[in-house]
Amino acid sequence: MTEYTVEQHAVLVGLIGKSLISRYEDYGTDIFINIIVSYANQRGRRMRKRALRDGMPLNYETFLAYGELSFPVLPGDYSTQSRDPYINCCHRCQWYEAWKKYDLTAYGKWYCRYVDMHLVQGFNPDLVMVARTAMGAGDSCCTFVDVGYVQTDESVKRIAQIKKQYSHQYVKNFLYHEAHFLNAFRRIGRQALGDQTEAIEQEVLSAFSEQYGTKLAEEVRALSEQDFDDID
């Protein structure tokens, strides 16, 4: 069985950024940022739709419980800097490790800067998460501030209960997220670059297949054709 990993997702993100920025410099950066924002907003909207369908409030507790990502975490990877407001620190970012390994940090830093805040905004525009620091931008850790959210022992218990009841249904593997990011690239790229988008996609998938094989690259491409606004 094929394993779908954080590293694959990070590398695909980095390769798309590299191709765009190498070709179009500042304009390529602008397009790349728009892809990241679109991808994050769409993820947040899916979480919102599921929460509303389940009759859950659109607050931080629900947001923290309804995430689509799941990956192995080691002790010490995360710590709580503050509970009022809630400030979460990531000391080992697996996306950053992948970008560093494959010399893609210059492109991955844009993902660090924009993805989380726009994921929250897609879930509920009245909530604000600030990415205060990011390893991809040269900081020693990634620091996220959930503005207006105070974490208590009771809220931690409620989040755990929500996860137990619902979230296991909604976690997506990294093949899904790789395909979603490629889909976001294609949508935004066509608006900004027209027919040039196809050549960039071929370049990216060729580099991706060199690292992870043609089979995985084709799986990503095929799955990227779906509508990522749909929820299960």
Brief overview, please?
Helix content is 61%, strand content 10%.
Describe this structure in words.
- Helices cover 61% and strands 10% of the residues.
- With 232 residues, it is α+β, with helices and mostly antiparallel strands.
- Strands 1-2-4-3 form a four-stranded antiparallel β-sheet, with helices on one face.
- Helix 1 (6-53) packs antiparallel against helix 3 (94-101), helix 3 packs antiparallel against helix 4 (105-123) and helix 6 (174-193) packs across helix 8.
- It starts with 5 loop residues before the first helix and ends in a 9-residue tail after the last helix.
- The mean pLDDT is 95.
